[in-house]
Design goal:
It is a single chain. The chain is mainly α and 564 residues long. The protein has a domain at 448-553. 74% of the residues lie in helices and 0% in strands.
Amino acid sequence: MAAQPAPPGRPEPRLPAGPRPVRRRGLGGTPLAALQPALAGAVHAYAWAGRPLARRWAEMLRQAGQDGNAFEVARWGRELTAVAGEGEGCWSDFVSLLIDRAQLQAGDRALALGQRAECHALERRFEEALEDFARALELGPGNASLYAARGQTLRVLGRLDDALRDFDRAIELAPDSETAVASRGVIRQRLGRLDEAVADLTRAIALRPSDDWAVAHRGEAYRMMGRYRLAVADFTEAIRLDPSYEFAYASRALARRRLGHHHEELADLDRAIELNPEYEWAYAQRGVTHRAAGRHDQAVADFTRAIELDPDYAWAYANRGVTYRQTGRYPEALADLTHALELDPTSAWALTNRGVTLRQTGQYREALADLERATERLPQDAWAVGNRAETLRVLGRDAEALADFDRALELRPSAWALARRASARRRTGDLEGAHADVDHALQLDLTEGEARFVRALLLLAAGSREAAADDLTVAYESARRSLAERPEDPVGLLRMAVVEAARERPGAVAHGRQALLRGAAGPLLDAAIRDLRELASWAGEDSRARRVLDVLVPASSAGGGAAD
């Protein structure tokens, strides 16, 4: 499973900006004398209550200037009203006018610069935002809200350590700022400091229990810690506080996935998308849910929708590529995985999946190159290391494969890796080790087809055909299911040919021919021929294995050794 990307949360609430705005009282009597406090009040009006109050404040200045025959006051009112405009969004022009022309006191100017910096950040003009924050903090070094607001901008830029320092300073100045404490918790969560993240978010919730944003992000920290029941509880509480909170629904789905509650998982993702039909992350996660349930067409549709909403969504491309591979659509799989790596060259998960796809299409050198790069980037990833081992095994480089399988199993024991290490051990003559690996694999998963096949070969080599029958039946069912999903897959066709030959079934030769027609060649074909030669040596000249060999050997790099 991929290391999944961090889910998008909702925007942080506006930080408290400072004192309430100056009231109009007294402005009409001595308008010029009151002008500078009134202009400072315009800054506070915008900072405290946003556009509606700021617009009324500008209109108040205009009217007061007219009533008092004060041209300067009326002019300020008209100019502020003109840049105020209508609708929603940021008013950088409004605060710029006050910054550039009003004679503001240091604290008021700092507040105005901070507001303009937030506008720049919302409009993704980050350099200008950071310049304004720096100027604001020179004027107001004790303003906790400015540090917190700059911290939010640095977080968006991915400068998490710098953001953390700003939030630390904001909390030193205002220890009871729930928003700053919660935001620091989210920064610590993204830095992987999960215990500290939970501590901050718990403190923020104690300061304001109704903060659904803090509750949901504590749930996200619990989810990342593997504490899925606590995560579900927090996401459920966040939804109770805000029934339209799509992030909480989508994240609760991921926690429920890990608990095995798949029906509820799908319902949560459906609800998140219903609330926000353009929520690309929820579409991508629902694609994963559909794929795990075998609903590949629906998975592809969801990944495609996520990509339509965000054409640069590398993770969605990679997951669609994996889905294509699982249905045997290898050209589309390689195209998607390659594009995912163009968008995000650092993705070891996409690199591993492309390596697996290349191996399954017989491009072993390219596969090994991808898997080498993936394991360099993620040396602790059992799945990447295990797939490099499997590629080496298919190439016949069993000693190197065994070293990689050992490492993968140290990192995370799995029936898949144990079964394939058993195969490599059997080929190198370590029959005792092969038996031990098979037994361990089947303790973890009785249906592991490779393990049952290897044990069948071990039993056949010992002359125990009857004892091997059950294992061959399970191996056959595993191969049949694989072919049902990917009927033109040369890997599956070759495996079916070998298993049917071991069972002395008439379909063995036909499956061998189909495998050749579908491109079976190179190390993959050589490995099948090795197994068939062993089977023929036990079963005799008139065996199914010998008949399949007569079909495969002429096409193999093994050449004329078939009759040896």
